[in-house]
Structure formats: structure tokens, C-alpha cells
């Protein structure tokens, strides 16, 4: 009797101590996640999902780390321009490179899509995949965010890291499905998020197989877009790389809508969640009220209509970053 | 003395029982595989490979199952033509569909690449990915090989299934890297080879995201080639889907050469192997002496020059199929 009592005591304490989402406040968002994981993985559950079918997909920018005031990868590309120009001095007086070199941020803010495409092509191709990995790694080790004065890889959302861990501990394979560059995200995804390179689906440029001067086989990045992994491109990218429909999908913008729709169209239990940036004190607020940005009133209405779960960063998250004092 | 003898007897029997490659004859090919696995996974080995980096890639047609007298997927496409024509009767009198419907095998053998492309496009696109999966599954359940009178999924090479199991038991992720259709191979890869859909890299057509009549999100297969996963396309496809260089690669044809070169260009221990079809009694012999086919004298010379291991089906494999009496 005493033994049973002690067992229960120890057991319930152990259970309380192991709240898998300690950075989340209790509320509908946390509840939806915990219940989804339970209902799809508990033996005997009518909505049990076979271990091999457990796929959860996560957008990256704005869903698992800061995307303001600029996508991290765009910052990388702009900061790579001097190194590119050094190798190709002819570019020095050619736009948009000239403006980037001038450091005129107001002028850069007016870049058109073709301008940005030229910068992306110049900084994300022309090197081997190994050289590119080394360049990104080096940049990430020192570049810092203008507001938070932290390495970009420190600007991950602690609550979302906990969600990813919970899913993996429950037998889910966690995937990034990002509009960002697949090769860029792969450089740090394993170390920062525990997501291995082969589980990163992103916008992907082509590579070209060839040989270096010594006859060694190499892959060179070329400026040809194979997959634009945004909006309709997200479910298409999921099919290309994963070949299974996710059971859970996390996003934060209109570019994630189709991924959530595709997830929801499957049978059984499915979890669709949107991170809502409504905390300008601790991070940023850019929707649904804002006219710009990636969230909108229309997306909020869509979420309501389709019973998607909206995560309020302000109300649902006890802390946002690991370095927050809380 | 007797005890020692008994011990040795028991030990050698136990050893024999746990030979991970029981369908292989002792020889350089078997030895190369067993030693590679040992040297890359044994703690303290100077060529130890971290578990997360353990990637092994396998070609499919001719490397892990029969590819003669015709690729299984091509048989599928030809046999799907009547169903396609039933839905689009206009095709009945249009070549190459007319010839397929006539059943004239001699005429079909003369199809040009554009003819085959038309047949592939008509039978591999136009349906949702779920519909396609269901069609292939149904076909595989009854279609039989003309010579062996077995389901195609029974025509896997037992020695290669053992290799895949050995790699997985040693912490390797096993991938298909096939010139065949990614979506086609995914239908049976998990059940037949233990390779999940997300670990199949193959020639991939695009899909198009949209909605069915009820507003449900769907992906439709469209006739646009995204990845031609053959020759140089193999390392390019490996980078696109996996994002890591393999430590071991198995192929059987000139279409696998670049994958083996890319594998070999990595540092540390790497294993490059080619299956040589030299057993017309139990399977087929089509090289290196043959002038046609996917193996050639040139590939054999290349293998020698680059110290790739050639597997003789005749000499290295005790049995070829699980149904062989042996």
C-alpha cells in the first residue's frame, strides 16, 4: 500500500517535472499540440499513426526564428557582395551591386525583385557545394542581428525548439519546409534545430556535376531555380523530397497556407498551426492588423474558417528566446 | 580438449548463423562490404563515420532487382495504355498508342525515345499522386515477369537485400538513387526493400497543387521533368534530396558512374561497388563482353582503374532470388 502510494507520488512528480513544453503558457495552442501528439502516438488510440508515417513540417523564417527586419539569408547575400565583387571587379560599377557596396540602406530597401534575384544568383552560385557550406558557416559564426545583438542562430524561438523535440521524442520525423534556400538552411539546421540536412526542404537551385583540375568529382551551384518552395511550391516540395503527406504543419504566413491545406486534406488527426507575431516588445508585431508583412486579416479569417490553431507569441509563449530572462 | 573442440564447434556454428551476408560466397566483394561496414562503424576505428553521416545509396534496376528484358516501370506504362485510351478514346488511332494497343512487340521494340516519352507522359501524369499510388499498387499485385513467372516485387536480389539490412543494422540510412520514376519506386520500396518513400531519389516529374471539386487540396502529376536521375543527374539528385555525400554506393551501369565518382571523392573510407550481370543461367549476362546493355568493357576498365569493386553475380552470389532453391 505504502509502496504503491510512493510509486504514484514519484511517478506524478516525474510527470510534472517533464512538461515537454515548459516555455508555453497553458492555453488552446499548447493544448492542441500536446493532445495531437498524444492522440496520434498512444497505443490503442483510434487516431494512432504508424511510426513510419509520422511526418511534421515546419516553416523556418518567422516560424522557428526571427525573420525581421530582413530574412537572414538576404542579409547573408548582401554581405557576401564585397567578396563576390573582389573576384569579379567588373561588377563594381554595375547595379544593383554598386548600391550594395555603397552601404545606402534606403536605396537597398527599394530593390526590385530582379535586383534581388541578381544578388542571390551572384552570391548563391558559382561555387562548389562544399565551398558554399564553408562560406555560410563562417558568416554565421560572427554576423549579428541589428536589434538583438546576437548571432542569428541564437534567434530561434525556444517554444518551437521544444515542440520539435516533443515531436521527435514521439517518433515524428521533423522537416523544415522553407521558402529559404535549401542549401543555406542545411548548413546549420542539424546543430541549431536537430534537423539533419536530408530533412530540409527549401527553395533549391540546380547543381552541375563535373570535375576539378585534379579530376575529382565536384558539384557546382548554378543559377537555375529547381524548386520555389513557397505557397503552392511547399506541398509540391514536400511531395518531391518527402513523398508523404505531413500529419502536422507549422507556419506563420500566407506562404504557408497551401502546406496547411495539404496537411489538413489527409485523413485522421491533423494539426495545422500558425505563429502570429503580435509581440513588439519581445519580438515584432506585424499582423494581422498590419497591412504589410506576411500575416494578414485574410489569413486570420482563413485560419478561423478552417479551424487552424493560431499561436499568439505574446500570450502563448512564456519566453521567446533561450536568452530571455524568465 | 574435447571442451575446446565443442566450443569451437558451437562458436563456428554461431558465427555461421550470424553471417550477415549468408547468400554471398566468400571472396573479395563480400570482404570489401564487411570490412567497410566494420571500419566505418567500430568505435575507435580511424575511419569511424559519425552515425548521422552514414548514407549508403543504391541504384535499383539491375542493382537490386531484375531489369531485363525491360525496365519494370516501362512494362507498367505499356500495360497502362489501354486504361488511358479508354479515358481518352482519341488516342486510339494515334501513334505510338496504336502500336501499343496492337500488341505487336516487334514494333514496340522499335519505339524511339520521343515515342516512349509520349507513353510515359500519358501514363505517369494527369492523375493525383494518391490515384497514381493506387494504380501502381494494383498493377504490382498481379503483373508477372515473362521469364520467371513471378511478381516483379519477388525479383529482388537476395544478396542485395542482405547488404541493405547489414547497412541499416550498422546505423546507415539506405537510399535508392534510381533512374526510374521516384513516385513509382516509392509505392513498393518500403515493403519490398525496407526503404521508406522519403529515402527514394529518382527521376521526378513535377506536381501541381490545386483543389478538387469539393475544395480539398490535391497534388496532380504533370508531364514536366524536374530531375533526370541518371548519370550526372545522380549526384545532382543526391544533393537535391539528401544534401550529403554517400559513404557507399552500389550500381551496375554507366548511369551509375558519376554517383560512384562523387562517392569516392569524399574523404575517409568509401565503398564503390558495381553488380556485374554475368550469369545467364540464373539471371542474365549482358556485359562486359556484350556490346549492348548497360555494362561495357569501358566501365569494367574504369572500375579497375578506380579500384571499384565488381560483384560477379555468377561467382559472388550463392543465390540470386529468395525463391531460388539453395
Q: Can you characterise this structure?
A:
Two copies of one chain form a homodimer. Chain A is α/β, with parallel strands linked by helices and 326 residues long. Helices cover 41% and strands 15% of the residues of chain A. The first copy, chain A, contains 13 helices and seven strands. The first copy, chain A, has helices at 2-17, 28-41, 72-87, 97-102, 105-108, 113-124, 129-140, 158-169, 182-193, 233-241, 257-264, 297-305, 313-316, and strands spanning 55-58, 173-181, 200-211, 217-227, 248-251, 271-276, 309-312. In chain A, strands 4-3-2-1-5-6-7 form a seven-stranded mixed sheet, with helices on both faces. Chain A is globular and about 80 Å long. The model of chain A has no long low-confidence stretch (mean pLDDT 93). Chains A and B meet through helix 9, strand 3, strand 4, helix 10 and helix 11 of A and helix 9, strand 3, strand 4, helix 10 and helix 11 of B.
Number of strands of chain A: 7
Proportion of residues in helical segments of chain A: 40-55%
> Largest interface here, residues on each chain?
A-B, 39 and 39 residues
Shape of chain A: globular
Assembly type of the chains comes to homodimer
Topology:
Two copies of one chain form a homodimer.
Chain A: H1 2-17, H2 28-41, E1 55-58, H3 72-87, H4 97-102, H5 105-108, H6 113-124, H7 129-140, H8 158-169, E2 173-181, H9 182-193, E3 200-211, E4 217-227, H10 233-241, E5 248-251, H11 257-264, E6 271-276, H12 297-305, E7 309-312, H13 313-316
Parallel strand pairs in A: 1-2, 1-5, 2-3, 5-6, 6-7
Antiparallel strand pairs in A: 3-4
Helix pairs in contact in A: 3-6, 7-9
